[in-house]
Design brief:
Elements (H helix, E strand, L loop, with lengths): L15 H13 L3 H18 L1 E4 L2 E4 L9 H19 L2 E7 L3 E12 L11 E10 L4 E10 L5 E16 L12 E19 L2 E16 L5 H4 L8 E13 L10 E11 L9 E12 L6 E13 L7 E3 L13 E3 L1 E14 L2 E13 L11 E13 L4 E10 L3 E8 L4
Antiparallel strand pairs: 1-2, 3-4, 4-5, 5-6, 6-7, 7-8, 8-9, 9-10, 10-11, 11-12, 12-13, 13-16, 14-15, 16-17, 17-18, 18-19, 19-20
């Protein structure tokens, strides 16, 4: 919901192998003998320390002769009241920067069951954010993930209106902080993908992407002007696409085990009215392990490929609140993006938990341009506060960093991936 970034150094030599290892582990998982050894250790520890493992997760059991303290009971009672308020009351947001001034907003997130008596259909989510700054910046979003009868149908949708600047250092991976430019853009966008279960945990479907970019403003000396980059005039994006997914997660918004793979391919043809004709392909693979107790190891590897006449605002964008945290989304952009991250999630006490992650990524004009040189590093940690115990959903505070002063702070609901 909110992020703040600082300077970007030149990327140093890093390992493309990191991305490959994460991709391999995400798709194929850890060796089976590791999981077997973990189960044996948990079973042994359970006999000694009185905890059990069920539904793929472990949880402490309170000894029969123990009782909660009054303070803990009061704390749990307070948590329950706050959860009930959270269902109806949005969370206030505030930030300040020299460019934007004072920014005020509200955020709302709900995980709901569309069918109250249906124990098979997984929960759906609805998320809304609205912010406005004293300098006239506006951002309003509504995103949904609706799951229908017996998980047979899934509808992913996103609507956004923004009147905010974009910060860009150029196009390509070899960028410098002194080249940063601020580009004013207004955009309205609606994106939706419908999926149908064609086999157990396998989904296929189609989608549409409708967007309009207008009031694109930049300095007359901008590289967008001098190099005649596509997109400077704005215009409509009208695309159709195909999608496929494989989803075995136990929880869509805070997974403990399972995997998730989503692939989309969208086409923006002239006969649909799209000002620029291009193709955009996205691949997102995630894997989750529950090694012991309520601890989670999460892996993710993604890639984006665009080609033909791609406007600068539709290129593959690196960074953001979910991937390569710490980097301003879109400061680095090109026709190809690869990134990967691994995150460790652990409970601390009651409703509180912490996470830590490390990731790497880069952009390039094509896949042939992905050399070992130039991979950027992202690392950081976060605080988790459970705001919906029924659906095991958290409010997250993430602090992302990179070499040379790169940093970002994010507040959002559910896990980053």
């Amino acid at each position: 919901m909110h992020s703040r970034q600082m300077g970007y150094p030149q990327p140093g030599r890093s390992a493309l192998s990191f991305f490959i290892v994460i991709l391999f582990a995400t798709i194929f998982g850890l060796p089976s003998h590791i999981s077997a050894q973990t189960d044996l250790l948990l079973a042994s520890a359970g006999n000694k320390f009185n905890f059990n493992q069920s539904a793929g997760r472990s949880s402490w059991l309170i000894p029969p002769d123990s009782t909660k303290t009054d303070s803990l009971s009061e704390f749990d009672s307070f948590n329950k009241k706050m959860e009930n308020l959270f269902i109806y009351i949005p969370v206030p947001l505030y930030s300040y920067s020299t460019e934007a001034g004072h920014t005020f907003g509200l955020a709302k997130f709900n995980v709901i069951n569309l069918y109250k008596k249906d124990t098979i259909t997984k929960p759906s989510k609805i998320s809304e954010v609205f912010t406005m700054s004293t300098e006239g910046r506006i951002n309003a979003s509504i995103s949904t993930e609706l799951v229908f009868r017996n998980n047979k149908y899934i509808l992913l949708s996103y609507f956004n209106y923004k009147k905010t600047p974009e910060y860009i250092f150029g196009i390509g991976n070899d960028v410098k902080i002194e080249d940063v430019e601020e580009i004013e853009t207004d955009r309205i966008k609606f994106y939706t993908v419908g999926l149908y279960e064609v086999g157990k945990d396998f989904y296929a479907g189609a989608g549409i992407d409708l967007a309009s970019y207008f009031s694109v403003q930049t300095d007359s000396n901008s590289f967008l002007v001098t190099e005649n980059v596509s997109g400077l005039e704005g215009g409509p994006d009208i695309g159709i696409g195909l999608a496929g997914a494989w989803d075995t997660r136990d929880n869509r918004y805070n997974a403990y085990h399972g995997h998730y793979i989503l692939t989309t391919c969208f086409f923006y043809p002239e006969f649909f009215g799209s000002k620029y004709q291009f193709t955009a392909f996205n691949f997102d693979a995630r894997k989750f392990f529950n090694p012991w107790l309520n601890h989670v190891i999460a892996l993710q590897a993604t890639t984006t490929f665009t080609n033909r006449d791609v406007p600068f605002y539709d290129l593959a964008l690196m960074g953001g609140e979910d991937k390569m945290r710490g980097y301003y989304k879109g400061a680095l952009r090109d026709k190809v993006l690869v990134d990967a991250q691994v995150e460790y999630r652990m409970p601390v006490w009651n409703i509180f938990g912490v996470t830590g992650w490390i990731g790497t990524g880069r952009v390039a004009p094509n896949y042939d341009g992905l050399s070992l040189d130039g991979f950027w590093l992202s690392y950081g940690g976060g605080l988790r506060i459970k705001v919906d115990s029924k659906h095991n959903t958290n409010l997250r505070f993430d602090f992302g960093f990179g070499p040379g002063g790169i940093n970002g702070f994010y507040i959002n609901f559910a896990e980053a991936f």
